[in-house]
Amino acid sequence: MAHTFGELVEMQRVADEAHGRVLELQDAYGRPTSTPWTAEQNETYQRAWQHWRALAGQVQAAVTEHAKEQEKPRFGVEAAVRVKAWHPEPELAAA
Q1: Least packed by Cβ within 10 Å: which of 4, 40, 46, 95?
Q2: How many Cα neighbours within 13 Å face the side chain of 14?
Q3: pLDDT tens digits for the chain (95 residues)?
């Protein structure tokens, strides 16, 4: 399924949010080697990690497909998507 550039940006944002959740859990739980995690913590972390990796994989596949369709270098499309996702233009206030 072909994705527009805007859809790729939104997919990247969703994947970034999921990654943020993984990092939050790491901060909250600490290192599992110094403070063993409970079974529930481990399961929660694993679910969040797998969710993030699945979303990241979908973004990568969609970027590759989009680049092929547009006949553009993949790395350029990926860079543009990340820039737009990480640095969105400010919304213009209604006058």
Answers
A1: 95
A2: 15
A3: 679 999 999 999 999 999 999 999 999 999 888 889 999 999 999 999 999 999 999 999 999 999 999 999 999 999 999 999 999 776 655 54
